[in-house]
């Protein structure tokens, strides 16, 4: 088995299911891959240093070797808070209105990618596979090539790829994509994002793309494919059966006093459609006065990217909106929205999911969305809850037995809540079984194995199951 060098913006040392604190989707997904392959996880430590030294901090934790570097404040501002999270993240989530273009961001992004290349290149041995993750590091492959790295290098994009008409609003868009064409393999979450990418490559760059996703560029072949990410099904369902999960379940159940409960669990991010979700729930309360007092929405939303203004704004807006809806509908013994801004242990989350009759997973745009899959995996198969899922999440292409909604339509989401609350047990079981099968069959182990095998050149797997 080849050694794996994983490179991502942050190195989040894999924690056990019961460990404290929230972990992002990427950390959860990669922990399994890194435990199996010998290898190294390289990235930013999350720490600041006054002057960049390139000093590598090597550590061994839970069977994974990590190597991290510290970055200068200017790097963090221009690369992380700037180009990654004020330019690429909003643009790739179709939010051109929030996208900021600033040359200093470009420079910082280039500079930090070059620093990553300088620091990681000496760690790479001849037979290693290199796996780069996400929008922070799109040009890293080309920079490694410049340093003479000839290993197979793959990159996986965890977020959507935008339609060409949006993408071309990025200054230097062609240069960015040309730099990506130094990877051997480029992976996307779904066929939809893959199609947007190959459309750009064909239409804007005039490059041939074969039916199997092979792109010809400057005498090289690059394979572009969809690899829909999953959850660690075994680990998650085991955690969901733990005493801690049961305790969290019972605590939450008794606090809602026999009422039906809806749950939302999302990083506090404008792409997750939280404002629209609150509006839809408010509308449900207004339109269904007979049911309203028997329902509670628990929204868990730990803050993220707090140095970026649009994230401060969304936090402020949501606090106001929750306060407004609660003010309009609550009475002395009932508050309709419980809005909580903190992380929980994954076992506790599993207990909360199981206690909820409905999950509201309504992003406006999402590469995949692992919360939808975790919710399904945590349910009691005898009496499962209902997943209401945005048609704009990558997960909607696989989870077609969810109640699919347009998150922009408060009427549609409100109707879906009503329908889901009234859904007969038989229909809930049938939908849940179909969803569970899909989540079990395409879990994170399959995702990782498919990507690594394809990168190794075996191409043993069939094209993605996530056909539109
Ligand atoms: P995210 O945007 O972070 O991931 P998501 O896929 O939903 O979104 O993953 C979030 C993860 O964080 C889940 O595992 C969830 O359990 C966990 N989490 C959220 N809130 C939490 C809390 N309060 N406490 C503890 N844990 C919490 C990005 C992309 C997604 C893609 C993933 C993986 O934006 O589209 O699915 O990467 O590729």
Automatic annotation (TrEMBL):
<dbReference type="Pfam" id="PF00982">
    <property type="entry name" value="Glyco_transf_20"/>
</dbReference>
<protein>
    <recommendedName>
        <fullName>Trehalose-6-phosphate synthase</fullName>
        <ecNumber>2.4.1.15</ecNumber>
    </recommendedName>
</protein>
<dbReference type="InterPro" id="IPR012766">
    <property type="entry name" value="Trehalose_OtsA"/>
</dbReference>
<comment type="similarity">
    <text>Belongs to the glycosyltransferase 20 family.</text>
</comment>
<dbReference type="InterPro" id="IPR001830">
    <property type="entry name" value="Glyco_trans_20"/>
</dbReference>
<keyword id="KW-0808">Transferase</keyword>
<comment type="subunit">
    <text>Homotetramer.</text>
</comment>
<dbReference type="GO" id="GO:0003825">
    <property type="term" value="F:alpha,alpha-trehalose-phosphate synthase (UDP-forming) activity"/>
</dbReference>
<comment type="function">
    <text>Probably involved in the osmoprotection via the biosynthesis of trehalose. Catalyzes the transfer of glucose from UDP-alpha-D-glucose (UDP-Glc) to D-glucose 6-phosphate (Glc-6-P) to form trehalose-6-phosphate. Acts with retention of the anomeric configuration of the UDP-sugar donor.</text>
</comment>
<comment type="pathway">
    <text>Glycan biosynthesis; trehalose biosynthesis.</text>
</comment>
<keyword id="KW-0328">Glycosyltransferase</keyword>
């Amino acid at each position: 088995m080849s050694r794996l060098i994983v490179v991502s913006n942050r190195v989040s040392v894999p924690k056990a299911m019961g460990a404290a604190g929230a972990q992002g989707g990427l950390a959860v997904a990669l922990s399994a891959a890194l435990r199996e392959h010998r290898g190294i996880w390289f990235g930013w430590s999350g720490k600041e240093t006054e002057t960049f030294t390139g000093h590598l901090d090597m550590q061994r934790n839970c069977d994974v070797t990590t190597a991290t570097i510290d970055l200068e404040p200017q790097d963090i501002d221009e690369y992380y808070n700037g180009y990654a999270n004020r330019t690429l993240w909003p643009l790739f989530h179709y939010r051109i209105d929030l996208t900021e273009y600033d040359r200093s961001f470009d420079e910082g992004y280039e500079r930090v990618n070059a620093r990553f290349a300088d620091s990681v290149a000496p760690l790479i041995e001849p037979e290693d596979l290199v796996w780069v993750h996400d929008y922070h590091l799109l040009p890293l492959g080309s920079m490694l090539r410049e340093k003479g790295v000839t290993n197979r290098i793959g990159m996986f994009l965890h977020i959507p790829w935008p339609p060409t008409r949006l993408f071309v609003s990025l200054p230097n868009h062609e240069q960015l994509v040309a730099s990506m064409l130094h990877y051997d393999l480029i992976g996307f979450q779904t066929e939809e994002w893959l199609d947007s990418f190959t459309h750009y490559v064909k239409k804007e760059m005039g490059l041939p793309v074969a039916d199997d996703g092979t792109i010809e560029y400057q005498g090289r072949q690059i394979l572009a494919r969809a690899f829909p990410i999953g959850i660690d099904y075994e680990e998650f369902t085991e955690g969901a059966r733990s005493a801690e999960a049961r305790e969290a379940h019972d605590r939450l159940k008794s606090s809602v006093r026999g009422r039906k409960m809806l749950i939302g669990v999302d990083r506090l991010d404008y792409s997750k459609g939280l404002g629209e979700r609150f509006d839809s729930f408010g509308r449900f309360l207004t339109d269904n006065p007979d049911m309203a007092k028997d329902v509670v929405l628990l929204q868990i939303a730990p803050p993220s990217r707090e140095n970026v203004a649009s994230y401060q704004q969304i936090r402020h807006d949501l606090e106001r909106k929750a306060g407004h809806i609660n003010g309009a509908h609550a009475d002395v013994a009932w508050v309709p929205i419980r809005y909580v801004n903190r992380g929980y242990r994954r076992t506790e989350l599993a207990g909360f999911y199981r206690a909820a009759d409905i999950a509201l997973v309504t992003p406006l745009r999402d590469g995949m969305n692992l919360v939808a899959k975790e919710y399904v995996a945590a349910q009691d198969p005898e009496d499962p809850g209902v997943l209401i899922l945005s048609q704009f999440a990558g997960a909607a292409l696989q989870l077609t037995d969810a109640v699919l909604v347009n998150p922009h339509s408060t009427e549609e989401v409100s109707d879906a809540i009503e329908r889901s609350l009234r859904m007969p047990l038989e229909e809930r079981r049938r939908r849940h079984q179909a969803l569970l099968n899909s989540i079990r069959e395409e879990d994170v182990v399959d995702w990782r194995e498919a990507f690594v095998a394809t990168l190794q050149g075996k191409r043993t797997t069939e094209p993605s199951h996530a056909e539109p």
